[in-house]
Each structure stands twice: as C-alpha cells, then as structure tokens.
C-alpha cells in the first residue's frame, strides 16, 4: 500500500486525535526513514526525542530479539533481571537511589505526583498536596498530568480537573516565591521546556528553585522526559545546573524506541511508597528493560551526550548564519540537540516544504521550529538538513 492508501485506511479506522501528515513511515535506519512510497527522509524529529540512538540501532534490535526469545513478560510479583540491571545503571549514573518503571512519560509524571503527595502526607502534614508547575510546561495527557501542564489549551473540555495544581511563569523566581502557599508540597518543571517552545531554564532560576525548595521544605521534581538521556548535551539536563533534584521522570529515549517510562527518586523520598501503593502491569517488563539496558549502554559507551553537545554547537552556528539572512527568524535557542528557532511567522509552511524536500522537522507552538535529531547525527547530515531548511526558508 502507498502513502495515500495508508492515509485513507488510517482515517477510517484510527481515532482522530493527531494532526497527522499524509504519509506512513514504514522503515528506519540511523537518522534516515522511508515512507510507504519509498521516499527517503532525513529524520530531525526522531520520534519526538525518542530515537536518540537513531532508528533500529543494531545493539537495541539484538537485545530485543534475544529477550523476546527468552521471556517477553512475567509480572512485578517477581524480580525481573533486566529491570534490576536498568535500575542499577540509572542509579549509578544519576544522583538518585531508587527507580520505578512504567510505560510512558505521562505515567511517570503521574507517579511523581502521587509520590510527592504520599511523601508530603508522611513528612509535611496532611494539608500539603499542592504542586506548583510552570506556565507553558507540558507533562502529559492523563487527567492529572494534563492538569499539571501549564497550557490551557490542553485543559479545555476535560473539566472538572483534579485539584491541587498551581502555575508560575517559567524562569521567574520572584513569582515562584509568591506562589508558594500553605498547601504547597512540590515544584515540578522541565529543565528545558519542550512543547512550550524549546525554552531552557536559566541558570539562576533552576539553582534558585533548588534553594527555594530547600528553604521551604518542598520537593523539587524535574520532568526530563524530553530533555533527558543525552538530549541536552549532558546525560541529564539537571547536571547543567549543578543541582540535585529529589525526583526525576524519564521516558521517550530510554527504550531506544520501546515504550518505557521511569520515575527516579532519592532514597528518603522513594521510601514514601510502600508495597501496594503504586503499580503498572507492564512497568519494567523484560522486553522494554532489555531494550533500555542496551540503549543506555550505547549512550554511555559512545558518549552520545557529548556528541549532542558538539553537534548542537555546530548546528546552532549554522542556524545563526541563517538568522542573519532571514530577518523573520527572531531567536535561536536550546541546549545540545534540543533546538528551537522562533520565527515572526507561522512555521507550518516551512515544515511542509522541508517534508516535500526530504527532511522531517517539527514545531513547538505555531511559530517555533523544533529540531530533535538523533544524538549520533553527523556534521555532514546537519549540513544536508541545513541545505533543505534554507531552501524552505527562501520560499
Ligand atoms: N513530559 C514531557 C516534557 C514531554 O515532552 C512529554 C511528551 N511530549 C510527556 C511528558 C508525555 O510523555 P508521553 O507521551 O510518553 O506520555
């Protein structure tokens, strides 16, 4: 079947929740994907920060094949070998002590909200439950996480929303200070906002949030679902700020393409969950955690975070040159290979033009182009993408 036929079939049978482009991606290798018409694309979306190793990394594929032949699923009634291995790797490479596995970013944040509330009830008193999140943030599509999300467009139509969330402008410490109230138990933020337009947290702000949380005995939760796992140029984005959060959530890139989420916490915080308090049938199952072990191993062995840093600098340099030529480009920002280009006009036309010319990119809001290539992208692939982008900008 070709793109058009898949599009028609999809429209007929699949619920219409995504604004999809009229093509079906059927194969991927490294930073390249192919559609059902056989057309090749350079992929600077990478599954929205999922394919940090590129598509179908041979070591991930092998690990999934081996695990599928050994044990696909059992249950969290028993210990699961690759789950323990992945938890150990995450703990050894972060400031956290314990890991809970689930299946997505939204579910990881849902778990973080529950853990923060449990901890607060135990250690702060029964009247502490409110979580302050940032305006323009994005934390997921479950009822609690869409409420945590600081963009009203995600709330509309789903009311009544769960209580216990309030919103503070990102990168504004004075406003956050004022927003801390008698019921506050935690602050939740993305160190680099993704969906909200690729906005990095400022150094003073993130450090200030840590200090403010310490002074007020609040938990500091970072959502690294999009910016974590090498994407920002460090393994975890919080490392840029020389701070240690109390809780962190991961998903997307952790499984190298397999669906997995994780909630990490400091020992004392993790202890608020006792047997029976939280669960997920498929959470940390052998297949996805085997994929996770292979993914994290490659990421560490090949130092893809450092590659993201270097390739990101090169990429931004090239974009700065374009900014001089095209005055409708307002700002270029980001960290590592999480890069946003804010324009004075809507960017849908540019994205469609790039698509037609064989480059996949995405937006973050109507006026921001977002680039999330695999972390092992080469300079020559960046050059190739820049050529296509420039021809789209010139249109
Ligand atoms: N948090 C952040 C920062 C995200 O970018 C996303 C997804 N875009 C999520 C949470 C939700 O993740 P998922 O779609 O896996 O539930």
TrEMBL record:
Modified positions (N6-(pyridoxal phosphate)lysine) in chain numbering: 252
Principal subcellular localisation of the protein: cytoplasm
Localization: Cytoplasm
Gene3D superfamilies: Aspartate Aminotransferase, domain 1, Type I PLP-dependent aspartate aminotransferase-like (Major domain)
Record-level Gene Ontology MF annotations: N2-acetyl-L-ornithine:2-oxoglutarate 5-aminotransferase activity
Any Pfam family the entry gives: Aminotran_3
InterPro entries with a match to the protein in the record: AcOrn/SuccOrn_fam, Aminotrans_3, Aminotrans_3_PPA_site, Class-III_PLP-dep_AT, PyrdxlP-dep_Trfase, PyrdxlP-dep_Trfase_major, PyrdxlP-dep_Trfase_small
Cofactor binding remark: Binds 1 pyridoxal phosphate per subunit.
Enzyme Commission numbers on file: 2.6.1.11
Pathway this chain belongs to: Amino-acid biosynthesis; L-arginine biosynthesis; N(2)-acetyl-L-ornithine from L-glutamate: step 4/4
Binding site for N(2)-acetyl-L-ornithine: 141
Keyword S-adenosyl-L-methionine: no
Reaction catalysis annotation: N(2)-acetyl-L-ornithine + 2-oxoglutarate = N-acetyl-L-glutamate 5-semialdehyde + L-glutamate
Keywords, alphabetical: Amino-acid biosynthesis, Aminotransferase, Arginine biosynthesis, Cytoplasm, Pyridoxal phosphate, Transferase
Cofactor(s), names only, from the UniProt record: pyridoxal 5'-phosphate
Entries under SUPFAM superfamilies matching the protein: PLP-dependent transferases
Binding positions (pyridoxal 5'-phosphate): 138, 223-226, 281
Assembly and interaction partners: Homodimer.
Family: Belongs to the class-III pyridoxal-phosphate-dependent aminotransferase family. ArgD subfamily.
Other known facts: May also have succinyldiaminopimelate aminotransferase activity, thus carrying out the corresponding step in lysine biosynthesis.
Protein name per Swiss-Prot or TrEMBL: Acetylornithine aminotransferase
Organism: Dehalobacterium formicoaceticum
């Amino acid at each position: 079947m070709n793109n058009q036929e898949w599009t028609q079939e999809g429209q007929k049978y699949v619920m219409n929740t995504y604004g999809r482009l009229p093509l079906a991606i059927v194969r991927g290798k490294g930073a390249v994907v192919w559609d059902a018409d056989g057309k090749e694309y350079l992929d600077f979306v990478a599954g929205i920060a999922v394919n940090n190793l590129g598509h179908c990394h041979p070591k991930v594929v092998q690990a999934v094949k081996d695990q599928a032949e050994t044990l696909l699923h059992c249950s969290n009634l028993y210990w699961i070998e690759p789950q323990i291995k992945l938890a150990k790797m995450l703990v050894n490479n972060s400031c956290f002590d314990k890991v809970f596995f689930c299946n997505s970013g939204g579910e990881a944040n849902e778990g973080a909200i529950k853990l923060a509330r449990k901890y607060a009830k135990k250690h702060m008193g029964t009247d502490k439950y409110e979580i302050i999140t940032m305006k323009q943030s994005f934390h997921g599509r479950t009822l609690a996480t869409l409420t945590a999300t600081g963009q009203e467009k995600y709330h509309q139509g789903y009311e009544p929303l769960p209580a216990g969330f309030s919103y503070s402008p990102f990168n504004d410490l004075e406003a956050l200070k004022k927003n801390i109230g008698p019921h506050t138990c935690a602050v939740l933020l993305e160190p680099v906002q993704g969906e909200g337009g690729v906005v990095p947290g400022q150094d003073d702000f993130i450090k200030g949030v840590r200090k403010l949380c310490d002074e007020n005995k609040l938990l500091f939760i970072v959502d690294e679902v999009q910016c974590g796992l090498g994407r920002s140029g460090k393994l975890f984005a919080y490392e840029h700020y020389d701070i240690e959060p109390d809780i962190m959530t991961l998903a997307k890139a952790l499984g190298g393409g397999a669906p997995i989420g994780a909630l990490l916490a400091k020992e004392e915080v993790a202890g608020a969950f006792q047997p029976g308090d939280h669960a997920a049938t498929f959470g940390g199952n052998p297949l996805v955690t085997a994929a996770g072990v292979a993914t994290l191993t490659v990421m560490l062995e090949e130092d893809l975070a450092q590659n993201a840093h270097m390739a990101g600098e090169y990429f931004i340099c090239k974009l700065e040159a374009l900014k001089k030529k095209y005055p409708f480009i307002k700002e270029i920002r980001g960290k590592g290979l999480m890069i946003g280009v804010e324009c004075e006009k809507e960017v849908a036309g540019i994205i469609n033009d790039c698509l037609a010319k064989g480059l996949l990119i995405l937006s973050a809001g109507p006026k921001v182009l977002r680039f999330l290539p695999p972390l092992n992208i080469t300079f020559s692939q960046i050059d190739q993408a820049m050529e296509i982008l420039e021809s789209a900008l010139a249109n």
